């Protein structure tokens, strides 16, 4: 397919949706890192900068009632699925108006109304939960789809294999989306796994595995569309391996010393968000002025959310034991 065929096939609306979501993620991430570095917000944060296109394509394809599961590096998945900016920012700042009333923070965003069901810090822990969500919708006879997002490191955790096995066996309506950013904390993928392509692992569970350039909106949209359609049609899971890179290391204090010389600079030079902007303009899909307007609109929405979160109260002490399974612990 030529770029033009693909453009017609995907449609301008979907392409602009991907760009709008990616812009929101990029700007949100930049603002959050700036506030943390300035000491104005205290939170554990794992930046997904560089991985925006994967979630933006998936978020454009999913319905609100579809489910998404993500990880501590989950801002891109949360925003792309439609978690509202104000509640998200309030949660990031630990405020009572946040998605989890300020008790979760960035690593535990949950917003069922948007279909963002779980954010977990347990590597690989999201896969069995996602398989369970998919099993629930299968039993209820709906055509909802669950997308589980996780990293390359997670594919060496037992839970990945257990979830893939059952999902394949029961043909669950789930898409396992691995964001392969080439590193798990400070360990390069090849130093931890003797299989060159994560996508190949799907064969052992009897469902398709597809490797795709996760930074290419057209390729990512196409692969995700097929996987989601398969799941929705009752044909079972797909393992997507979306190749990408994270621009700000594992966590904010990461000095990236374990990377190859020039690797990070090369990845940043190929930043997928400005690259998509240039492509949209070059293809005549949007004008620079139209995309400037998208960016200005997202900036204003983020400024509003930060102001809202800043002005919101901290949770009351009397709330400390609500919604935290206190009865089960007694
Ligand atoms: C079960 C478990 N083991 C170890 C950790 C510590 N840990 C946190 S993030 C991480 C790396 C995971 O890498 P990957 O799955 O590639 O995701 P990425 O951080 O690159 O998005 C590890 C080992 C954890 N949180 N949970
Ligand atoms: Mg990784």
UniProtKB/TrEMBL annotation:
Known cofactor(s): thiamine diphosphate
Superkingdom classification of source: Bacteria
GO biological process: pyruvate decarboxylation to acetyl-CoA
Residue stretches spanning the membrane: none
Keyword Cell membrane set for record: no
The keyword tRNA-binding is assigned to this record: no
Listed GO MF terms: magnesium ion binding; pyruvate dehydrogenase (acetyl-transferring) activity
Domain Dehydrogenase E1 component: 46-316
UniProt keyword terms in alphabetical order: Oxidoreductase, Thiamine pyrophosphate
Name of the protein in question: Thiamine pyrophosphate-dependent dehydrogenase E1 component subunit alpha
């Amino acid at each position: 397919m030529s770029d033009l065929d693909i453009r017609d096939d995907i449609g301008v609306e979907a392409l602009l949706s991907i760009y709008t979501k990616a812009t929101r993620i990029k700007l949100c991430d930049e603002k959050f890192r700036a506030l943390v570095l300035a000491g104005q917000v205290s939170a554990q944060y794992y930046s997904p900068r560089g991985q925006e296109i994967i979630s933006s394509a998936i978020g454009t394809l999913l319905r609100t009632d579809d489910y998404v599961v993500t990880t501590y590096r989950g801002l891109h998945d949360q925003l792309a699925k439609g978690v509202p900016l104000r509640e998200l920012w309030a949660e990031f700042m630990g405020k009572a108006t946040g998605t989890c009333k300020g008790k979760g923070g960035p690593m535990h965003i949950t917003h069922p109304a948007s279909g963002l069901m779980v954010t977990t810090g347990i590597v690989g822990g999201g896969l069995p939960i996602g398989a369970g969500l998919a099993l629930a919708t299968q039993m209820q006879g709906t055509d909802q789809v669950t997308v589980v997002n996780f990293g390359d490191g997670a594919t060496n955790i037992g839970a990945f294999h257990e979830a893939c096995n059952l999902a394949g066996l029961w043909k669950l309506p789930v898409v396992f989306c691995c964001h392969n950013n080439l590193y798990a904390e400070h360990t390069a993928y090849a130093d931890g796994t003797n299989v060159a392509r994560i996508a190949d692992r799907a064969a052992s569970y009897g469902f398709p595995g597809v490797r795709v350039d996760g930074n290419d909106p057209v390729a990512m949209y196409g692969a995700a569309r097929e996987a989601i359609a398969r799941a929705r049609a009752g044909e079972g899971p797909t393992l997507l391996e979306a190749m990408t890179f994270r621009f700000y290391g594992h966590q904010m204090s990461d000095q990236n010393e374990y990377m190859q010389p020039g690797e990070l600079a090369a990845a940043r030079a190929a930043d997928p968000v400005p690259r998509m902007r240039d492509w949209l303009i070059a293809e005549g899909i949007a004008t620079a002025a139209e995309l400037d307007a998208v960016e200005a609109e997202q900036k204003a929405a983020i400024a509003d959310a930060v102001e809202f979160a800043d002005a919101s109260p901290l949770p009351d002490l009397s709330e400390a034991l609500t919604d935290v399974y206190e009865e089960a612990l007694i």
